[in-house]
Amino acid sequence: MSTEYKLVIRTGSRLGAGTDATISVILVGMQGESGPHVLDKPFRNDFGIGAEDVYTVRGPDVGELLLLRFSNTAKFEDDWLLETVQVTSGVKLWNFPHHRWVLGNSTVEVLEGTARLARQVRNEREATARQAQLRARKEMYGWRPAEETVGLPGALDIRKERPLPKDELYRGLVEGSYEVVIAKTLASIQLHLPMLAKVWDGLVDIYDFFKGIELPHLAQRWKDDYEFARQAVQGIHPVHITSITALPEGFALTDDAVAGLLSPGTTLAQALEARRVFLLDLEILEGIQMFRKVDEHGVEERRWAPASRCLLYWDDTHRLRPLAIQLGRDAAKDPVFTPNDGEYDWLAAKIFVRCGEGNAHQMVGHALRTHFVAEPFVMATMRNLPDPHPVYKLMRRHFRYTLAINDGARKGLLAEGAVFDDFIATGGPDKGHLQLGKKGYERWKLTDNKPRVDLARRGVLDPAVLPYYPYRDDALPLWDAIEEYVGGVLGHFYRSDADLVEDAELQAWWADLVERGLPADKLPCAELKRVSDLVDILATLIFTVSVQHAAVNYLQYEHYAFVPNAPLCMRQAPPTRKGVIGAKELAEMLPTRSQTLWQVAIGRALSSFGDDEEYLLNEGGWREVYFQESEVLAVQQRFQDRLRAQLEAVKARNATSEVPYTVLRPDRIPCGITV
């Protein structure tokens, strides 16, 4: 007896997603499989970009559907991006989410979309399909040799004979490609930049860079002390500020030095005891090699980013402002600067702090603690969890483009001779930026990426201690929403810890992760035996690639493009005496015209959103639908409701804020690391 099946097939909307190749399908069920059916409608362009095509095929009743086997017979590059297939037969309905490429001259098996743990697989044919999918993925997603990632997280092995899988390729949309944004920014600046015959003055001539592109808002207030302090709580790296009750060792600061800078009648000791003093400490730069190179003419170029530290004070106007800065760690040779010193001494001290912070931010807070610690999880997931596994379904949208953007960063920014060698202090022949990344990784654990843990460690969790801290106040509700969401999804599938222990696929995921990706001492547990630990790990990971990455990435243009605010290198050593810096000396310390050009362009590119961006709170819902279980969809709906409420809270707070903090709006936080 023959049965009629209706197939509704959606093709992706990315550039090149459609195909003119001949596509055929075999339906595989619990009672057997059909013959191949060629999917072709006369006088119609099948499988166009973004199209929905409907086909009816007849064949034997194969029973409950397990998978669809698609063949693309193109002999050349005519790949097809298959998003989803919905199959109906009578009252029965099956969904097949794929969201990946079917390459030319290849066959793929698209597994039925119901989320199942390995022990819930219904027959041997289904189990075989899951295993076959993972064998193919392990061929595509190989770990980089361990000797190439010593001191860093494990990473994808990419080489000529093993290119980046097409499913991971970067978005390819003209406006979304960060290389294109860099090129367009450089061209726009150079087009409008006059030919300056005079010596470059980075304090004055910087304004000429913005005749063809937007001027960062802070350019009008960057010298102001309150603006400097504001960036510590809602700037590009708002995770340094720490509450202190005693001066750091070697920080020689007296009451006389801060005369008139504290509340009337308040001593420095009293201000510390009252917890009104905060510290920004860039100790991590101590011992890191700075750029030093001699050219063929014997001319030496050097750059500096000192291991400085800065005290901030919560004053009587209920705002933070900088109180004192030391551009080193040695009390004997590194003076402490305050606002009571000369105008250019104090301005230079603040700029040196921002320079050091910028180098630590780029390599540790941004590259290492978001991009590179996420990569091992992407690898372990793609190698060990088949499409129907609930953890795969939960995490896949948050991994979009991560492998591609990390590969691009390694080649275009971090490699020898790449862009970072051109303009950051820790770049160059001695590879100080890689030393810095490894130093940050050595000190890091995944729990450091949990906001409540991190804020408590720094003593700034309590609003009574630090009343104005937009990063904290926006990040914590998002963490709580993510944690509830992950717990709700996983709780539907893992009813007990025993379910987790018996999940062979997830245990293989864990073993692969700790063996090749992140050692167990970087993770919250030595063995994965409790559902609560899995919730903790995956919630932290989602928070990291979405919320935390947004916080440390999307203000780069605003923060770095007006280069005097935060240069990524200084061309003179920090002053060891007061009263020796004027406008001329400060201008000579700032980056060159070429270095400024690169910093503006890179900042603009890394702050850009793609045309195909998908946000945590995405208008119309998430485009890629992985789950179909009603209970899980209800959990997702509650998550979206919480995000919508948080968006309104952010809008209300920003409505009364002198400088709105917008990067943690849920509708502007991409689901993953896409730039």
Automatic annotation (TrEMBL):
InterPro entries: LipOase, LipOase_C, LipOase_C_sf, PLAT/LH2_dom, PLAT/LH2_dom_sf. The keyword Metal-binding applies. Signal peptide: none annotated. The lineage of its organism: Bacteria, Pseudomonadati, Myxococcota, Myxococcia, Myxococcales. The keyword Metal-binding applies. SUPFAM superfamilies: Lipase/lipooxygenase domain (PLAT/LH2 domain) (SSF49723), Lipoxigenase (SSF48484). Residues 3-116 form the PLAT domain. One of its GO terms (biological process) is lipid oxidation. This is Lipoxygenase. It comes from Pyxidicoccus fallax.
